[in-house]
Amino acid sequence: MAAVTTAVHAPPRPGPRNRLTAPGWIRAAWVSLAGAAFCFGLVVGLRAIQNYEPLIDGNAIVTVMLIGVPLFFLVGIGGFDYWGRWMIGRPTQPEDHSDHGARSWKDYFRVNTDHKVIGIQYTVTALFFLLVGGAMAEVIRAELAQPGQQVVDPNTYNGLFSVHASLMIFLVIIPIFAGLANYVLPLMIGAPDMAFPRLNALSYWLLPVAGVMMTASFLVPDSGAFNTGWTAYAPLSTDAPLGQNFFTIGVQFAGTSSIMTALNFIVTIITMRAPGMTFWRMPLLVWANFTTSLLVVIATPFVAGSQFLVLIDRALHANFFDAAQGGDIISYQHIFWFYSHPAVYIMMLPGFGIISEIISTKSRKPVFGYRLMALSLLAILVLGFTVWAHHMFVSGMWNWLRVPMMITTMLIAVPTGIKIFSWLATLWKGVLEMSTPMLFALGFISMFTLGGISGIMLAAIPVDIHTSDSYFVVAHIHYVLFGGSMFTIFAGIYYWFPKMTGRMFDERLGKLHFWMTFVGFNVTFGPMHWLGLEGMPRRVADYADKFAAWNLVSSIGAFLLGAATLVFVYNFIASWAGGPRAPGNPWRARTLEWQVSSPPPIFNFDEIPQVVGGPYEYGVPGSVHAVLNGDREKVAVGADGNGHAAHAAEGNGNGAETRRE
Amino acid sequence: MKHLRNPFVQVGLWTAAITAVVGVLVWTVPWEPESASTAAGPIDTLYDVLALISAFVLALVTSILLVAVVHFRKRSPDDLRDGEPIHGHTRLEVVWTTIPALLMVGAAVYSGLVLADIEESKADTQTIRVTGEQFAWTFEYPDQDVRSGALHLVEDQPYQFKITAKDVIHSFWVPQFRMKKDAVPGMTTDVRVTPTRKGEYTLVCTELCGLGHSTMRAPVVVQDQAGFDRWAERVKAGREPQAGGVVPQQGSGGQP
Q1: The domain that contains B163 carries what CATH number?
Q2: Where are the domains of chain A?
Q3: Domain count of chain B?
Q4: Does the beta-carbon distance from B108 to A407 stay under 8 Å?
Q5: B73: helix, strand or coil
Q6: B30 lies within 8 A of chain A by CB
Q7: Which residues of A touch B187 (CB under 8 A)?
């Protein structure tokens, strides 16, 4: 991938360092090896003291290594250097910003505290795992093209759909939103960086650890990948072979990454907004990430907890979920879904933000009902915590809990509906530019509506009793997570591609990608509704012959989707390497990230901007969202008659300097 | 015909047309398998009603989308106009908050009524104990003192299944009955079914339970009382298998 940097984006690196001890891959390699040796010694040593047989127990050693080696790796790569020095009382490295910005592609493989570099690291890592998870989906559909066993054995099959789902959720959708927001959110609120740049870098590096761990589980001898689904229901997961630990522990790293990033977003949004950027002037992407981050910090500890309980059951035989020992199996599902239903909104709300930006810009109209759009996000945040047990209508939980959960689940459609209607009203009487980001945004609106509708059907308990754990549910989640989340992700990647890479993408290939995806998606997942209603259970490697026809159609659609993704990958790489240079503001957008060069200067703004109006005032004569350096006089003469704003901008020079420290 | 070019009129027409087409499909195509229990009718009707409302909502959204794309499209690359600066419309926003909320409350009430209907306890209910294990089902008939790997039921006889599992969670589902319940180790769950149609069906496990999950099925036979009695006698005499055949584990990574 070509370098996308210019001299402006990176100050010279300070003098030569000792490569063996300087943060980087060489140190990461030997520190990880030392960590592996330490974990090995720890387990064997403890077993020797206790006289356990056999002395060398593969399961115990691998489990301890899964927890320990990544921490050593993070130390080696340099994730803790600053805090480490501080803790042991050595002088911390003066903040010379030498680890800001990227000089060459190699800098993306180092610990870097620049939110723009981290944003690209996140996004590209997530896209890599999208290809890995997508390839697994292709194998799954190849196996399901015909009844019977053709391509993989049942163990591999169960591993494939488990790892596919885990990667798509924990390594693709959740982090790619964090990546896009990492890049554009500080720019949007007029900040030079995130509030905690070093924490930001560390939270990125946890992510490849989780991804490699989950993918590597296929290599476990005598076990293969974890094969209990991404839901890892106990007691299936507590009895499963060693591969299960690669999920149980991998989730901890992905979850920690999520929580750290969410804290960072919350603090950034609360404290780093440019002067004049009140909450009611924030772009909706910022609102969306604010609510998402609240969901993440409240909910994610629950999935971490559920997997820790499984791990403790597996490793230490605590018997939380062993019915014969007084364990409570249903409680696993309550804890798990208390995270994993809000997780659906974690995977959707940032996409709502992206769509609001794109629809407004590409229709040249203000977002219709801006305040209600923001408030509906908050309503989803609150209601999102009251619906988890709708995943458990047939689980054997208390019967009385079902009806309240059905009512809240149906009511959450109301704020979601508000958003859909408001986007439609934003389109109305606009001047719609049907370019690739807009196509994905409109595709999202229609497909997500379908996903929401099937969600309401599943909320109706009697229908759910029939369709629960059937292919109807598989269809529903893919309409929500692919037709919903992935469409917004593609829309967002195309929309901010010029800003992030400094290059324009190929519009024709982008449109080809959209249409192939749109058709392939519906051919793949549409028939699954009927398969489920007809009685095909989910998570099966084999099925009754009467389901053969629709399964073949679905598999053909999946191969079309795979081909569409190749078009996207080619466009992404070729455009980044050699696309035409992007201007600062190719879409004539009004939010702040478009008011600087593409890619933006190293600290985003030469001076912190002064925000004087809403972000979407398209078509309002004389409207100004923010005043950047050089434009001051415009406000001083009162573009919107706001003398107070000009005064505030004047007084802000010092404030901006302080923020950069 | 001038008013046909009005985008609002077009949205109305498209919405009506799409709703009609989808509605006809919903009500005429048998999406679910044949119905073989008293629960199937109410559940299918609920599904059809929800599908019809859904068809209308989807038709409305896609019609607005498509009409907007056709009417308000940017005509040339030099077209640098902005749209009308409409920031909102309070009455409209109240409408599209209230109407969906009422619709949802209505759907919830209707669903609640159907739920009460299909789970109602009936007189003369017989109990059958169901046990799931990797990867087979066993059915015990306390009244007849019979144990079998096949589920034989009498037409129009109300049953309550008391379900449990030996190892991991399984799930009891006969698609033709529309009813489902998880089999959970260490506890007993229950589900009520009154079969209404003679025939042979398949009980499938719908909760991932390990390597044999795909093939964890059991035959279901709904028959008349005489046929059932003959079958029960044969089982007692040992001329029918007493328990479900356990599917051999495939691969080396099976659950211990």
Answers
A1: 2.60.40.420
A2: 20-87, 112-578, 595-660
A3: 2
A4: yes
A5: strand
A6: no
A7: 323, 329-330, 396
Q: Across the interface, do B187 and A323 touch by the CB < 8 Å criterion? A: yes
**Which domain covers residue B21, as residue numbers?**
2-72+89-118
At A636, is the pLDDT very low, low, confident or very high (cuts 50, 70, 90)? very low
Q: Is the pLDDT of residue B253 over 50?
A: no
Q: Are residues B103 and B161 in the same domain?
A: no
Task: Flag whether residue B160 sits within 8 Å of chain A, measured between CB atoms.
Answer: no
Contacts of A425 in chain B (CB under 8 A): 86, 89, 92
Using the predicted structure, report yes or no on whether residue A276 has a pLDDT greater than 70: yes
Same domain, B107 and B209: no
Give the A window 111-170 contacts with B, CB below 8 Å.
153-156, 158
Flag whether B196 is in a domain.
yes
Quote the CA–CA distance of A203 and A184 in Å, as a whole number: 17
Kindly identify which residue of chain A lies nearest to residue B115, measuring between CA atoms: A462
Closest chain B residue to the Cα of A225, Cα to Cα: B253
Sign of torsion over alpha carbons A625, B90, A459, A477 = negative
Is B233 in CB contact (< 8 Å) with chain A?
A: no
For residue range A23-38, what is the model confidence (pLDDT) as tens digits?
889 999 999 999 999 9
Amino acid sitting at position B167? D
Asked whether the beta carbons of residue A465 and residue B43 sit closer than 8 angstroms, the reply is yes
For residues B26 and B103, state if they share a domain: yes
pLDDT mean over B187-214: 95
Query: Rounded to 10 degrees, what is the CA torsion of A255, A256, A258, A260?
Result: 160
Q: What is the pLDDT of residue A660?
A: 34
A462/B168 CB distance under 8 A: no
Residue B43 covered by a domain: yes
Q: Confidence band (pLDDT; 50, 70, 90) for A13?
A: low
Tell me whether residue B29 is in a domain: yes
| Domain match, B207 and B136 both | yes
CB–CB of A471/A528 below 8 Å? yes
Of the candidates A366, A368, A413, the beta carbon closest to that of B104 is on A413
Residues B101 and B104: their CA atoms lie apart, in Å, by 5
Taking all residues of chain A, what is their mean pLDDT, rounded to a whole number? 90
Cβ burial of B136 (10 Å; 0-12, 13-18, 19+) is buried
Inform me whether the C-beta atom of residue B243 falls under 8 Å from chain A C-beta atoms. Answer: no
Q: What is the mean pLDDT of residues A73-79?
A: 94
The residue in chain A having the minimum alpha-carbon distance to the alpha carbon of residue B118 is: A462
What was the pLDDT predicted at A210? 97
Q: Is B256 within the bounds of a domain?
A: no
**Quick check: B213 contacting A, CB < 8 Å?**
yes
Helix residue ranges, H only, A1-57: 25-50
What topology is assigned to A112-578 in CATH?
A: Cytochrome C Oxidase; Chain A (1.20.210)
Query: Do both B150 and B178 map to the same domain?
Result: yes
Residue B86 and residue A366: Cβ atoms within 8 Å? yes
d(CA A127, CA B55): 34
pTM above the 0.90 mark? Answer: yes
Q: Does A240 touch chain B (CB under 8 A)?
A: yes
pLDDT digits (tens, 9 = 90+) for B18-77: 999 988 988 888 888 999 999 999 999 999 999 999 999 999 999 999 999 999 999 888
All residues at 6 or more sequence positions from A17 whose CB lies less than 8 Å from its CB, including other chains: none
Map residue A637 onto helix, strand or coil: coil
Residues 45-84 on B with a CB inside 8 Å of A are 46-47, 50-51, 54, 57-58, 61-62, 64-65, 68-69, 72-74, 79-84
* Shared-domain flag, residues B100 and B147: no
- From the centroid of its chain, how far is CA B162? 20
A658 pLDDT exceeds 80?
A: no
